[in-house]
Amino acid sequence: MHIAEGILSPVVLGAGAALAAAGTAIGLRKLDYDRLMTVGILSAAFFVGSLIHVPVGFSSAHLILNGLVGVLLGWAAFPAILTALLLQAVLFQFGGFTVLGVNAFTMGFSSVLAWYCYRGIIGIWPGPTGIRAAAFCGGALGVALAAALTALALAFTSEGFQTAAQLLLWAHLPVMLAEGLITMFTVVFIQRVRPEMFQAARA
Amino acid sequence: MFDQPFVRPSLFQAIDPRVRLACAALTAVCLAPLKNLPACWLGLALGLTLLIISRPPFLPLLRRLAAVNIFILFLWCVTPWTTPGTVLAQWGIFAVSAEGVRLSLLASVKSNALVCVFLALVASMDAPTVGHALERLRCPRKLVFLFLFTGRYAHVLASEWRTLSVAARLRGFRPRTDLHTYRTLACLLGLLLVRAYERSLRVREAMLLRGFEGRFRSVAVFRTRPVDALFVLSLLLCLTGIVWMEWKGGPHV
Q1: Nearest CA distance, A166 vs chain B (angstrom)
Q2: Is B55 domain-assigned?
Q3: B60 with B103, same domain?
Q4: CB-CB neighbors (< 8 A) of B198 in chain A
């Protein structure tokens, strides 16, 4: 879900940076020092998790996990994803300064929406099956929205990138399914082992 | 686990990390909006010069550049064929347009130029230094805290993940595309998250007991020296040249 630097137009880059800054500000305001260490270590766990390769059909894809971050952290997902992206830039040079805003917004915003979707479904449909459905939808929605926003950023940059953006979107369909399943199983596992993680990390 | 191969002695290590970080950001902001090809080539030249001064190790450099250029390659496979414009060459219904080639070329040159600058100026610092430099550059304190903490524990959790996956493989786990694989991977991931959570509670208590009051103190002292001013001046000169070329040439070159 990374766009390399130097591809997007200045308008898209500026808009991404402004939106990411706003989201991060909201996330940081909702995050007090008591939860900061938990969010930091969970963000490290997501950083590691996004290096995991999962077989999808004949090839493999690395997990994105932004849906799961959203489900566990709520609005705090925004700063967590921003720091993980910054760390990826410093350690592996994926992305750089100018696209950091766009990448953080596409992934952070979709994970916050995934959180609202998860909570909404649980509200309507309580019980274990509801949690499963909600987690699957959250995970799949996180990836789908991130892919759609990335494709939009590409398409807004230039008319010539529109087909590339569409291809990018289609390529993420199987990843969406895999990510939804992984998120569902992980949420069920955490519900069984440490249910308080859902309360403690949110507030 | 995540070693940083680009952190090694070079001329840039003598320059204040804050200055390097600010310069890298400024260069990125100047180069990213360029639309004029000669100006982009100049930017790439600037990036390559910085990269040569920072003396990167060869193999890791190739690997990083390859990783960036995969996305560029994908754009080259699609964009020249799908951009409307004057036809450059045609095979059957497939036509390569001049605009598409120009767009792809622009993206590739700029992308590589920016990666070179980033590799030379930022990747040559270790993660804690980046964090402390960000704090001195007035980044929000909570964000810097998160960054330092994430950087510190990414290594620990990565080695924990490696232990988990080795244990799974020893028990005969082979990843395939099926529900069993997804369920197993998800349980391992869940275990990693649960352990991370418990570790965070322990670390928090330990840090509070030792009187932690919300900010890390760094023993590293950042000092700006005349060398830094010289570096900033020469970089600004180069950037002014590039921006002037862009402004003079306009986008239609």
Answers
A1: 11
A2: yes
A3: yes
A4: 194
Please list every residue in chain B whose beta carbon sits closer than 8 Å to the beta carbon of residue A28: 140, 142-143
Q: Which residues on A lie below 8 Å from B142 (Cβ)?
A: 28, 31, 33, 36, 79
Q: How far is B247 from chain A (nearest CA, A)?
A: 15
Rounded to 10 degrees, the C-alpha dihedral B55/B29/A16/B131 comes to 50
> How many separate domains does chain B show?
2
Statement to judge: residues B15 and B87 lie in one domain: yes
Looking at the predicted complex, does its ipTM rise above 0.85?
yes
Three-class DSSP category at B97? strand
Domains and CATH numbers, chain A: 10-200 (1.10.1760.20)
Interatomic CA distance for residues B72 and B62, integer angstroms: 15
Distance (Å, whole) CA A67 – CA B209: 34
Tell me the average pLDDT across B216-224: 80
The per-residue pLDDT for range B88-135, each reduced to its tens digit, is: 777 777 788 888 888 899 999 999 999 999 999 998 888 888 999 998
Pair (B79, B204) in one structural domain: no
Q: What confidence score (pLDDT) does residue A202 get?
A: 58
Tell me which residue has tokens 């350690």.
A91
Q: What is the DSSP letter of A3?
A: P
Look up the domain containing B20 and give its range. Answer: 11-125+224-249
B121 and B165 co-located in one domain: no
- Report the percent of chain B where pLDDT is more than 70: 98
Is residue B4, in this structure, part of any structural domain at all? Answer: no
One domain for residues B95 and B174:
no
**Which chain A residue's Cα is nearest to B148?**
A40
B193 with A98: Cβ contact below 8 A = no
- Taking a C-beta distance cutoff of 8 angstroms, is the pair B46, B112 a contact? no
Residue B143: list chain A partners with CB under 8 A.
24, 28, 79, 82-83
- The answer to whether residue B218 is domain-embedded is no
Any domain includes B1: no
Segment 5-24 of chain B within 8 Å of chain A by CB: 24
Nearest chain A residue to B154, by CA: A44
| C-alpha B37 chain-centroid distance | 23
